[in-house]
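Lab notebook, entry 207. We have the chain sequence and a SMILES string for zinc ion, and the next step in the workflow is to get a structural model of the bound complex before anyone spends time on docking refinements. Request logged below.

Task: model protein plus zinc ion, output structure tokens.
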Amino acid sequence: MDGETNIEKLRELFEQFPGIGRRQAKRFVYFLIRKDTNYIQELVNEIAKVKSEVTQCHHCLRYYPKTQGESGVCKLCAQKDGSMLMLVEKESDLENVEKMKLYEGKYFVLNNLSPHEREEYRALKKRIRYGITHEGLKELIFGFSLKPELEHEQLRIQSFLKREFPKIRITALGRGLSSGIELEYSDSETLKYALTSRIELKKKEDE
Ligand SMILES: [Zn+2]
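Result returned:
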């Protein structure tokens, strides 16, 4: 490979990153070319380390260090209250909610479902079934930010929840005024309000 081809190859790799276009990918390549060898070596090592030392939790689908639990289940899923399950879009949402220590229940990270899984939600259904039989799961909370694509997804999930899990209470986080809630960036007051003013989407059928 000549130098030009190498640059192109690296550009293509960066272009696969979420939200990165051709032009930005090229800027990353030239940024790396200007960096010294130590930096490059550190970057390469850290990427390899993350890949080998981090694993995915079977229950919530988030990624966590293997040292925190060997059973394939993360610390949060092993320790927190299983009667509530909050559906969040991404790990950064989960991390922000967790940081504020206002919510006792467990989580499920939708973005970590494969695109194929996201059509049928088999892993989510399996998780809910497990929660009902083993953890006394009673309530599913939609912890979604206000975005049209997520609202559509919420409706899709809600419809199978009602059909397949009639005994589960379904709620959504309360919305602060008109701005809605961005879980990833919300402060503790906003989250507290969102949690205490949960909107009832469906009550348990036996109530
Ligand atoms: Zn977990």
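Notes for the group: The chain has two domains: 3-56, 80-202. Worth checking against the assay data. The longest helix spans residues 37-53.
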